[in-house]
Every structure is written in structure tokens, then in C-alpha cells.
Amino acid sequence: MEQLPCIYRPNNIRSFYWTKCSLLVLRFPALIKSNNGQCVSLKMEVKGWAGVLLCSTSGPMAHSVRRDAPELPDFSLLKRLARDQLIYLLEQLPGRKDLFIEADLMSPLDRIANVTTLKQHDVDKLYKVEYKPIVSTSDQLCFLIRPRIKTVKWICDVVNADKAFGRFRKYKIIFSPQKFYACENLLEEQGIFGDVTTDEWSFYLLPLDDDIISLELPEFFRDNFLEGDQRWVRTAGSALHLLHSVYGPFSKLYGIGRCSKMAYESWREQVEEGEQRARQAEIGNVFLIDRDVDLVTPLCSQVVYEGLVDDIFRIKCGCVEFGPDVTSSDKSIKVMLNSQDKVFNEIRNEHFSQVFGFLSQKARNLQTAYDKRSGMDIKQMKTFVSEELKGLKQEHRLLSLHIGASESMMKRKTKQDFQELLKTEHSLLEGFEIRECISYIEEHINRQVSMVESMRLLCLLSLTENGLLPKDYRSLKAQFLQSYGIDHLLTFSNLKQLGLLVEQQPGETLTVMESRVGKLVNDKTAGKLTDAFSSLAKKSNFRALGRRLNLVPKSDEEYDLRVPRDMAYIFSGAYIPLSCKLIEQVLERDGWTGLEEVTRMLNGHEFAVTAGSNGSDARVKTDSQRIILVMFLGGCTFSEISALRFLGREKGLKFIVVTTAITNSARLLESMLDNHA
Amino acid sequence: MIRGKPDEDEYWNSSKFKAFTFDDEDDDFTRLKESKRAVNSIRSLVEEEDEEDDVEKVSWSGEPVGSISWSVKETASSIRSTGEVRDQSFPKINTAPSLPKNSSGYSLSSLFKGTTHDWTPEETVKRMQQGKVYSLEKFRSLQDKLLLLDEAVNAHDGNVITAVLIYLKKSLSKENLFRELITREIALRHYIHFLKEIEEQKLLLMQYRDHLNIRDENKRRDFLKSCLSLPFSPDDATHVQDHYTLLERQIIIEANDKQVESSGQADIFKKYPRKASILNMPIITTLYYSCFYHYGESDGTYSSPANIRKTFRISDKQFLLTCLGARAKLKAWFDVDALFTTKNWLGYTKKRSPIGFHRIVDILQKNNAPVQVLQEYVNLVEDAEQKISLAQKYKCHDVIINTYRDLKDRQQLIVYRGKVERGSSEYRKIEEILSNSVR
């Protein structure tokens, strides 16, 4: 048997079980790909682990959805609305035209319409916006773009170039999801306002899955939290308003964060401006949360299947591209990852270590189903082919894909010493052996291993420790600049401004002392001390929050990933995501009562509101009350979605996640970079 | 780094990905019905605009062009017949921090009301939010301008805040505008972001950032030199100084090495041709390059490892790691050995390292060091358990056998004998130990 690189012995149950499962998965593609007797010998090899694997399939996978969990509303309506409006807008420019589409809008557009739809409405050629002179010969140009200065500038150049050339064309800009005055101002300044007509395509919401809706605005995070630009606040309010109009009326809204509060206000005003009609609500409750309320969670390594796939292959608009290493061919393929994929649907929320067992069981079942053929007569065979074979083939295809993906992910993670990386992360979350963590990070930087990973660990250190000691900050920053380039001065400045990576101020040394004292005294005292000091400045207060909300389970307790007991399973039992814990607590208490200390440590801006009196007394306990729409302003991760799905199963609720974009540590940190021309 | 998206184009233009697009084979009838139902419920989108808005282009109104407009028109008529309306108003919540309004006692609205198109700041902001016709020209006094700005900020709509700021930028002098913005943080941040986007304003770091736009290395170096006089914090000033020094030296090294390489004078360049220029690489990459191509040079040359180490204050640990990586890559095991060897005053040599030897082993292994080299360092790992686990990982039989021998662990030796090839030298060694040792 091929020897895999040695893996650190897991010292507690939290660790990954890479070793044994890895052998299995490495062997597995052969098992399910072969149709001949070859698989028998492979089965033998697998047999040794069957015991382990069999019991794992009876774990969380078997979690049945509570019978009383309500059905989700049908969000495909949103797609149709968007498509119909786009067609209407295209018809506003009658005749043949070339369409220029902003790169970021291509995938979202592809989810709601296709080329045929566009062609049917006189779109001749499709181009991607590339900020270069254009080659189109059409006398009508339509631009489908995000309201960005850079893109509008480029359009101005295109139009002015035409003018200089004495060329006459019609131009139309369709801004999605809305236009900004700054963009129109630019058209005016460039003397082409009027030569170019503008319109808005209110494509606010793209359903990515049954329970995920995205605004597809990744720049929301940077614009709002780093630049302090509130341009998307009304957009968020409008998106919420759209959901309210189609699936509301909402009866309760909870929220936390400055932006959430503003979005709520914007939504409320829009509701007041319009008229409401009596209708049966499909969604009753809403929870709004700012991303900067919890920056720790998106910076953790994801270990739940869907999150891990996103971290490694990057899921874009619900679609992932698997390379040759996954497909075991020379081709890459694009795959939609959603609940339609039956295999994926069953493993997406599972801790990665549980996935192998499931896939192997599936593969064996599949083999058995295929094997049935051997004893069949012609008639039975005919039925088999017409009724079962297609499904089996489909399953076979999906299974090979996910096994290939698992295999490839594991190879990569083994290579980068994932085990040790996770150990460091868990120590940071626990506040344990911080010096060792710093040395680990330092060495990571020294060895010039992935820049984003180094930055991620630095930010986690800062967030969990309420900032770095000045000498550590200076030394780590200097080493980072030496390893990855001095132009990262810009990155450091951004990280500081956002509060992701900061230096403890001299006045804060009390907190440092207090945390040391805290380790000597019992937890309760330390908690009180930390709380007392925390009101001084905007800090992450992670330790105190962790204690107050029990976010970090004791490390000496065993955590059985096969039967998760709480949302911590999404981080191998090491940490319950703060964002999801807040949601759980607020729903449980029906508001923020009893969480005063917590909200103070989170810098306030919490709210809980109920519809006016006439609305509330008429309210009955309907299914809609158990459907909760959670809106993340600034992005959310697949791990958080998995955690909420878990919470929903536990409490008989259904969560719908609306997010400005799906994010992960790499996307979040890359949005902080400025070091490219 | 941001991932490139070279495949977008192909993805878009090709039809083979059709399988993943939205399925439009649905029954047209249900589709229409559902769309209609949804459209029905978004009244504000469909509603006819106020009469006064006739100047404005309405985006979603009922011109009967094709099916969609028809459906929209149907919608508009059905809306008017809707029945009772439940009171579902939600409370206004205080969206802090509300800015101190610098308003005086009298009400502006009383001044503006009367004429049809003279809207108060509040009305103006509201109209702007709703995309209706508005006019800012009436806001001429400084006080009116500021009232308008504060109202926009209170509406927390960044789009409108920026629109007002653009108007203020055009109608106020820079000094006046900035003086007022200093006390209005939210507006100030919008203004800075706007200037950043239209590339007008250069804050301190943004000025430094401009070097990224300069391709020519000599011009870039000169630009960095000019940045040295900018008022950076002491720490950042050091980094910017380093940046300038680094590029200055890289230019010298690059010119020299390019010449040496093309003349074919040095074996090292022939054996390992340079893959890329060293220009604009980080300090550590430059150090690695120097350890690779310029090892052993006296510290008087810019290209020598010692000089780079000193100039950029590189830590011992960092220096060792980089040097080790470069020399191991070249399989210069003698150099590797020398890195760790220290002599005490009696002349005895001892191996020391500022980082754990298990790490050294890891790095050597990643550079394909032979077992003989590896096991020497595995042996230096202090923790016995870790030592054995590393030795097993890299098949350093001698280390394992010797460790078990020293631990007098007969049982483990017997187990290990079962793992090695029968008759091999390792096998014989175990046999020998087992037979020599007394039970």
C-alpha cells in the first residue's frame, strides 16, 4: 500500500482523522469506476475500515428533518422578476445592439437568463467589459454594469473616442442594481450625459439555493466597513423591501450593527412610502447582522464540506470549477453545487472527517444496485434500464466528482500541514499558548508560505487578543513586509483602519495585565474584569464574549463529530460561531433582554422591533413565524450557513440566509489589498 | 493575490455550459401567472409616478411593448382594486451617531414652502433617494448647504451624501469645504472615498502607492526616493527607506547578473538559469536569490547574503531559514552542515539552531535531501517521541533502531523488525542487537 505522509497523532477527538479515511478515499475512485471484478480486491482493502465507516453514516446524516419544520418559500420568483425586468429594459432600446457586460455580472446573469433570451431581444454580440477600446461595429451599444466610477469612465472614453472619430451610435447604460449620482455626474462632466441614456435594473437578489439568496455585492464589505461609504445601505434596504413585498409582511425584526440599523431604517421608510396589502406572510422574522460584529468566524479555516470546497476551489455564484486533479481526466468541469445535487446535498453540512464514510457507503450501495443486474432476466433488465439505470448513472457521476474533490482537498491540506495550522487556530480561539502561536505565525511568515494565510493568522491573533503588543506588532509587521513586499504597508494600514489587525495602545496594557491576572484567578472574575475595561474603546472583546456566550467549549471534553451536539461542530468542536450564537440567543429570548453585557461588548447598535399593534394582535402562530430570514451585511461564509441549518434542525426552524455576498477568509482579506497597480 | 478570471470569456461565449443555465422550458402560463403575482406585490416599482415628475424618465411604466409591458399594465390596474390594508407600521429606531445639526432656530421649511419646486433639505434628500427630480441650485448660503449635507447624512444613504458633496465641491472653495468636513466624519469619509475613486486626492499612503503605476525601475526608484520626505510615522519611514534601498540594490544586482549570465562566465547561472528578474521582489526573495547565486561573496558586495542581512536587519532565524532553503535546493549539504555548526573554545563542534530541528528536517525533506543527510538532523531532535515519528516518516531506520536500543525497548525492536525488509542491513542490525542484549 502506498504510504501517506505521516500525520500528527490526533491528541483529542477534535483533530482530523485524516489518516485512515485518506487511504480509503485514495483507493476509492477505482472502486466505483470499475465495472468488472477488479473491485472485489479493492473491497477487501476497504473492508478493514468498514466498521469505522459504517457507524459514521448513522451519525448526523441520519438527522431527520423535524416533521414540523415549515416549507421554504419559492424564491425562483425572484429570478423571473429580474429576468422580466431585464427584457423590458432591453426592449427600451429597440433594434439590434451589442451588449457589454461587467465581468461580475456575468455569472449572476447566467443564473436567470441565457444567451437565447438575450438574442431573442435583439442582442447581437456579447462582450465582457475589459476597459479596452472596443471593436463593435453595431450602431447601438448597451452596457450592463455595476455603478462603478471606473466602468463609467471607460464608457466615457468609448463614447468620446467615437465622437472624435465622427461616429454616431446610440448608447445605453443599465446600472444594476441601481445607479449612483456620482456615476451620472461623471457622464455630465465628460459632456456625454444625454448622448448616453441610463436605466436601472433592480436585480437585487439572486437565489443561489433553496435557502441562500445573494446580493452578489462583494464590495459591500470594503466600501462600508473600510471606506465608511454608505452607498449600499439603501440597496440593502431595497433588497429587504423586495423580500418583504413578495414574501412578507414581516412581523418581527432583530438586528445588531450600525449598518443593520441603517438598513432597517431605509427598509422601514420604503415600506411607509409604499402601500401594503393584506396577504399571508411566508416569512415572519428577520435578523440583520453586520459582518464586523463577528470578524473572527469568517477568518477561521473552514472544515465543513461546502466551506472547505469554497476555501480550496472557490465557489462562484453557486458554481465551482473542478480541475483535472478532481476529474481524473485532462478536462476541467463546472458543476453547480446546490440541493439539486443529491450527493452534495447530503454532505455539504458535514464535517469533512465524516464525509469519507458517507461517500464510501454510497459507493457500496451503488455497487450493490449495479450488481443486481447479474441475476436478471430480460424483462427485469428492461425495467432496470428504463427505471433505475439513469438515476444510478447520475449518482455515479456525482459520487465520482465528490470523491475526486475530497481526495484532492485532502492531498492539498496534508501538504500544507493543515493539522498544525488548525491546532494554532484552536489555540488562538482558546487563548492558550499564545507565545507558541506567535512563533508559529512568525515562522509561517519567514518561510514565505501563502501571504493570505499569514495575514489571516495575524488578524485572528489580533482579534482574539484584542490587539497585538506593540513589540509583537512591530516585529511581525516588519517580517511580513520583508517576506511579502514592502508595498503591503498599504494592507497594514487598511487592516488597522478596519480593526482587523491592531496594536494595543499604551492605555490598554491594563487589559493585558488583566488577562494575565485572569488566568490566575477563576474565569468569573476574569470575565468581570475584562468587561469593566472593555467599555473604553472599540475592541473585539473576543475572550470576554467567548466566556459570556460559551463560544469555546472546554478542550478536554470529548467532541463527537459524528453526533454534533451544538454548532461548534462546524469548527471541529472548537468554537461556536459568534454570529450564529447571537442569532440563537436572540431568537430564544425573543429579543436582547439578558444580553446587555454582550451587546455592550459588541459596541451596541442592537434592536428588536415588532409590527404595529393592529398587525400583532391579528397574528396567529403560522408557519411563517418559524421561518427566519437572516441578512448578513458584509458577507457570510458557508460554515455559518451550515451552522444555521443545524440550529434550524434542532429548533424546528428554517433559516433563509440573505447575504451581500458569500465570503471566506481569502475573499475578505483580498478585499483589503491595495498593492496592485 | 486576486485570482485571474481568464476563462470568463470562454465560459460566456461558449454554449457547452448550457447545462448550468436557468431552465426556461417551464410552462409559459404558470411562469406568467407567478411573475404577475410577484410584480403585483411590489407596488412602488409599478406605480405611476407623481404628475410633477413628468420631466423625469420613468423606468418601469406601462408602454405596451411586448409581453412584459402588457403584464406590467395588467398589474397596474389590478393594484387599484386591492382591499383592506393592515396597519403594519414599524417603529423608527435611532440610528446613531446622529450628527449635531448646526441648524439655527428658524425652520427652513417655512422659507421654502410655497413655490412648487423649492423643496426643503428633507424633501430634497427624500426626492433624491427616490430618484425623482430635484434641484440643488437653491442651496446657496453656506448654512443651507450644510443643512442639506446634514440631512443627507441623517438619511444614511451614501449615494445621496456623495451627490450633495459633489455639489458642495463645485460650489464651495476647498478650504471652506474641508473646514466643515473636519467636524463631519461620515461626510468626510464619503468625500475621501469619492476623491479616491475619481483619483483626485492623494492621502499619504496613496501617494506612496503611486509607485505601483511606474513600470520603469529607475523612475520607480527615483519616485520612492521622493517619498522619503513624506511625513510617515517613524516605523513606516524605515520601511519606505528600505523599499528605496532594496530597489536601488536590485537594479545594480540585476544589471550585473544579467551581464554575467549572458557572457556565460559563471557556472551557477549556466547550471541554474535565472527564471525571472530580481527587480521588485520582496527582501526575503532577494536574500534567497543572493544565497543561491552569490553565496560566499564577501560582505562588501551588495549582492552578498551578509550585506543584505545587515542592511535590512534580518533576524537570525529568518536568515537561517532562507539560507537553508537556498543551499538545500542546490544540494549543498556541506553548506547546510556549516550553518548549524558552532565551535566552543576547546575546539569541539556542536550543532545548534535557532529553530527546532524537526523544522529543519521538514525543510530538508521538502528539498529532497537524501536519507543520510536527513537522519543526521532527525537525530538532533530532542523529543524522543517526535524523533521516532519523524524517523518513521522519512524511513531513517538507523535512528529508529538506535533510539529503541537506547531505550532498551525490546518489544518495539521486534515489532520494527517485522516492518523492514528481511535480510536487509537494517534487519541484520536489529537481529544483532536483539541477540546481544540480555533478557
From TrEMBL, chain A:
Highest taxon above the source species: Eukaryota
Any Gene Ontology biological process: protein transport
Name of the protein in its database record: VPS33B late endosome and lysosome associated
One Gene Ontology cellular component annotation held by this UniProt entry: lysosomal membrane
Main localization category: membrane
Keywords, sorted A to Z: Protein transport, Transport
Pfam families in the record: Sec1
Transmembrane portions of the chain: none
Topology term for the membrane: Peripheral membrane protein
Transport listed as a keyword: yes
Family under the similarity heading: Belongs to the STXBP/unc-18/SEC1 family.
Compartment(s) of residence: Late endosome membrane; Lysosome membrane
Organism name: Hucho hucho (huchen)
UniProtKB/TrEMBL annotation, chain B:
Listed GO CC annotations: early endosome; late endosome
Main location: cytoplasm
The Vps16 C-terminal domain, residue ranges: 142-204
Keyword Manganese part of the UniProt annotation: no
Location in or out of the cell: Cytoplasmic vesicle; Early endosome; Late endosome
Gene Ontology BP, a term: vacuolar transport
Record key words, sorted: Cytoplasmic vesicle, Endosome
Protein name: Spermatogenesis-defective protein 39 homolog
